[in-house]
Amino acid sequence: MSELSGRRIVLGVTGGVAAYKAAELVRLLGKAGADVHVVLTAGGARFVTPVTFQALSGNPVWSDLWDPRVENNMAHIDLTRGTDAIVIAPGTADVIAKLVHGIADDLLTTLCLARECPLLVAPAMNRQMWEHPATRRNIAQLAADGATVVGPAAGDQACGETGMGRMLEPDELLEHLIAFFQPKLLAGRKVVMTAGPTFEAIDPVRGITNTSSGKMGYALAQACRRAGAEVVLVSGPTGLPAPLGVERVDVCSALQMRDAVVAALPGADVFIGVAAVADYRPLSAAEHKVKKSSAELTLTPNPDILAEVAARPDAPFCVGFAAESRELDAYAEGKRRAKRLPMLVGNLVQDGLGSDDNQVILYDDAGRHPQPRAPKTVVAQKIVEHLAGLLAMRATRLAR
Ligand code: CTP
């Protein structure tokens, strides 16, 4: 289940080399549960045939304003009604110019003029075309007219040049679309988070760590971002890709994690500690590999990052996590009170560690709020909704 599930999306494919990426986008949209209807311009059909899009979307492909398959010859009206969004990917300089000037000389541009739904455009063109004053004006006007412009990115171009104008990759476009439909519950908020394990070096080849996968923290960072927050994710070693739009700061040890959190805190509204921070570290990491003969290891406690942040006079709204193997309520609520946290997410380790699913209970001053077992992405969304509710309540209290 995603925000795209059951959504009807009209995908306009225009005549750019990036049209080949639109085929993958159709596949990803379909996988996310969207009902995709492709409108292919004459230029687009030069790059990819309608058969490809028909096979991938499972729906007929539309190109002709006068398509006899539409009963009253009103394809430009019929196709937009009940549609949740029109997405144009790739959007050439030419189609963008037409949209801005209200030109409706083919099915896609006519559809856009006749639409009642949002329009998203993913530009794709040569870097010089992108930088041309006419395109600059048109892009500004397109955004001012209420369309959402996603991308482009910089990089290698099909023409052999390098620069701004590459269409975003299909998975990036998908993420933009999911975020587009997400309620902006955390708009204007800055969220600093920790995620993953820490690694406390013993010597150059060994260390103390744990089996935290980082999946819950990364899913939560993505959910906060989709909800409109600026997100800084301070992450221990995980191997997971950073969610789109999230600033990730890579660290290893608890001390590095604390320093990175402190550096990111200015301006933060929320701090969420998801990381499984090692409670202890070797007193000092050996410069050379430790030999069997000197097996003694002296440990010293690590700082409690979450407790330190929550104790600051200018503390942001702090959310903790507690993974327990038994007596969840007692331990979780005990940790919440000991660290003076307005909210804590508790789960049994056997329910979540390393898995794609999780079952959590949310604890706050009002009590415990059990959540159903669900994929971590869905759990993350629930946590964001609960957090946003508490932030709104706090804002109302402060305004009184
Ligand atoms: N935490 C932290 N810094 C630490 C330890 C924990 O920021 N050095 C944060 C975690 O990110 C999590 C919460 O505190 O949000 C977990 O609380 P804690 O009591 O430290 O959990 P455990 O380390 O699991 O405690 P225990 O081993 O005693 O169960």
From TrEMBL:
Q: Which of this chain's residues are annotated to bind CTP?
A: D279, K289, P303, D304, I305, L306, F321, K335, K339
The Flavoprotein domain extends over 8-177
Q: Look up the EC number in the record and give it.
A: 4.1.1.36, 6.3.2.5
Q: Where does the record place the region Phosphopantothenoylcysteine decarboxylase?
A: 1-190
| GO molecular function ontology, one term from the record | phosphopantothenoylcysteine decarboxylase activity
Q: Which reaction does it catalyse?
A: (R)-4'-phosphopantothenate + L-cysteine + CTP = N-[(R)-4-phosphopantothenoyl]-L-cysteine + CMP + diphosphate + H(+); N-[(R)-4-phosphopantothenoyl]-L-cysteine + H(+) = (R)-4'-phosphopantetheine + CO2
The name of this protein is Coenzyme A biosynthesis bifunctional protein CoaBC
Q: Which organism encodes this protein?
A: Aromatoleum buckelii
